[in-house]
Amino acid sequence: MAKPTLAIYWAASCGGCDIAILDIETKILDVADFFDLVFWPCAMDFKYDDVRKMPDKSITLTLFNGAIRSDENYEIAELLRRKSVVMVAFGSCAADGCIPGLANLHTKDEIMKYVYHQSPSLSADNGITPAPETIVPEGTIRIPALWNTVRPLTQVIDIDYVIPGCPPQSDQIAAVVSAVIDILKNGKPLPPKGTVLGATDKSCCDECTRKRDVKKIKQFVRPFEKAFDPEICLLEQGLVCLGPATRGGCGAKCVAAGMPCRGCYGKPANVRDQGAKMASAIASVIDSTDPAEIDRIIASIPDPIGTFYRFSLPDSLLRRNQS
Amino acid sequence: MSFEPRIVGFLCNWCSYTGADLAGTARMKYPPNVYTIRVMCSGRVDPGFILDAFRNGADGVLVCGCHLGDCHYVEGNHKCMRRMPLTKKILEGFGVDPNRLRLEWVSASEGARFQQVINEFTDQIRALGPADLHDLNFSPEDVLAHSTAGTE
Fold first, then answer.
1. What's the Cα-to-Cα distance from A313 to each of A223, B15, B25, B51, rounded to whole Å?
2. Residue A69 phi, psi (nearest 5)
3. Predicted local distance difference test score (pLDDT) of residue B151
4. Which of A136, B30, B43, B136 has its CA 20 to 30 A from that of B53?
5. Cβ of B141 under 8 Å from any chain A Cβ?
6. Phi–psi pair at A194, nearest 5 degrees
7. Rounded to whole angstroms, how far apart are CA atoms A203 and A213?
8. Of A82-86, A180-184, B119-123, which range is least confident?
9. pLDDT mean over A305-320
10. Which residues have CB under 8 Å from B135's CB, separation 6+?
11. How far is residue A63's CA from residue A87's CA, in Å, rounded to a whole number?
């Protein structure tokens, strides 16, 4: 009997999700054993035409990481959706937009100008801006057009499941892989469509082992500014820790290592906008009833929009810079 | 047809909503542009509500609560007074003029003050123009627009 088939693709991505998959170490052998890998551009030599030639719904499972910000990203996302039985938004880029999503703070025009003409690291400005079509003596060169607004995969394609995280932690990936193999091998029912896999329904705080008490902040601080008590909640000590507004499942490893949570697992269950929820939480712990002092304390948070929406800007209610 | 602002007003049950009601029963005239939503306390107003209002077409959002020290739940309005400046910072980050969000304390007896706030805020939003948010939803028809938007 034919083995179930697996495809792994990267769109607007950093490659970290593919590495996280390899980080399941020897479990990757179980994956290779159980599945027939039919498409994984990061690790194996496949071409888009290989996928185009496959019958529809012939790929059992596609793990799609990366956001959608170009015509190519969109074309392959649509292609894989047609060819796949189950398609999973793998990682924060596909789920919420993640780091590429921060491009939504600017327009495509601003970005192209900066990268190709204004960046301090340019050795010389040759005056050329890449374009979707360039006419040369030999003919027309076409490259995929970049989009003005970065979208998470979840906004452009009807996907089946989401595995959040930047990247999803390898122990969670291994757990999901085992569950999938179990389901396929033993004919068990699939979880309801839209289920978030590899994560909990609570916030990151639930997994954090630090001691929690009443939070009263007179000044927010950054990690380099002082030494921090390893036993006490980081938010309590003035660090902007997004634990309260971030989905659990990662094991709170960053916090255990003394770094405040940055929110990479995205919004918790039943939350619509991660950044707004974090703003609400942060405002609750500000210790002041004087408007001028409140303004001063808020000013001690550098870059609120980048801090609260670092991983979820395209998924936010307002999606992008609207000016 | 000239622009008529759409303003969403979150009014706390105990003071502001009652104050607005007083304006009504006393027949004080104010522009009909505000859509009032009664919440039990201004501290209930989540920044997400405000962003949601803008997403759904509001040009301005007004949050009214009890004066400091008068909150029916003691400290709810304190939480509100901390949330609103931070929400303004977030609106700024999203390129939405933070003046489109306004926080006012209106007591149950201040019908006239409520009328004045609505008059002022409606004029202010009318001058600012429509919030005009775009690219909120993805549509496959937009794919070409995605590639060419944001360019000269």
1. 23, 35, 44, 13
2. -140, 10
3. 47
4. B30
5. no
6. 95, -5
7. 17
8. A180-184
9. 97
10. A148, A149, A319, A320, B149
11. 6
DSSP H helices, A90-199, are 92-95, 108-113, 153-156, 170-186
Whole-angstrom distance, CA of residue B87 vs CA of residue A296:
15
CA distance A172 to A24: 9
- Touching check for A311 and chain B: CB below 8 Å? no
The pTM of this model reads: 0.94
How much is the average pLDDT of A207-220? 96
- The answer to whether the CB atoms of A148 and B89 lie below 8 A apart is no
User: How far is B96 from B132, CA to CA, in rounded Å?
Assistant: 9
Which of A118-122, A160-164, A264-268, B26-30 has the lowest average pLDDT? A118-122
Q: Considering CB atoms only, which of A110, A286, A298 is closest to B89?
A: A298
Interface contact A28, partner B, CB < 8 A: no
Cβ atoms of A59 and A83 closer than 8 Å: yes
Whole-number Å distance between alpha carbons of B111 and B18: 8
Asked if B135 reaches chain A (Cβ–Cβ under 8 Å), the answer is yes
Return the closest-CA partner of residue B105 out of B81, B75, B72, B79. Answer: B81
What's the rounded Cα separation, in Å, for the pair A56 and A296?
A: 58
ipTM of predicted assembly, 2 dp: 0.93
Given a cut of 50, whether residue B81 has pLDDT beyond it is yes
Q: d(Cα A238, Cα B21) in Å, to the nearest integer?
A: 42
